[in-house]
Design brief:
The protein has four helices and five strands. The chain is an alpha/beta fold.
Length: 131
């Protein structure tokens, strides 16, 4: 069973993603964090297979947190959640073969497709994004 950690500052969103992951049989959520600092502390206790990560607002941006996580956990895949209108510096996918992007405002079915895609070892990009 694949192990997930969800990082998002909105509890209701984390609950939605957890519901999709566990009720659709994608895996088990082994931890949740409200920000990048909490998330990095979770990594000291758990070894997830996948991270579902919002563009967390900490002293480090989500790309820095993702890179630290990837360096500390081998074979970790990170699904970064972004909003199309966010003014953020998103790295090019070529910067890391472990980082994917999905529109945070996506519908349940789009998240299911993204999870299915990354569980099959492929990249996932929401159709509604233009990166």
């Amino acid at each position: 069973m694949k192990k997930f950690i969800i990082v998002d500052n909105h509890l209701s969103f984390r609950q939605k993603i957890k519901f999709i992951i566990e009720n659709e049989g994608f895996g088990k959520v082994i931890g949740e964090a409200e920000n990048g600092t909490e998330y990095l502390n979770l990594l000291k206790k758990h070894e997830p297979d996948f991270i579902i990560m919002d563009a967390v607002k900490t002293s480090m941006n989500e790309t820095d947190v993702s890179k630290i996580a990837i360096m500390n956990v081998s074979d970790l895949q990170v699904l970064q959640l972004i909003l199309p209108d966010e003014d953020s510096n998103h790295p090019n996918n070529e910067d890391s073969n472990l980082v994917e992007f999905t529109d945070k405002s996506a519908k349940k079915r789009e998240f299911e497709t993204a999870f299915r895609t990354i569980l099959n070892g492929k990249k996932s990009f929401s159709n509604s994004l233009s990166l």
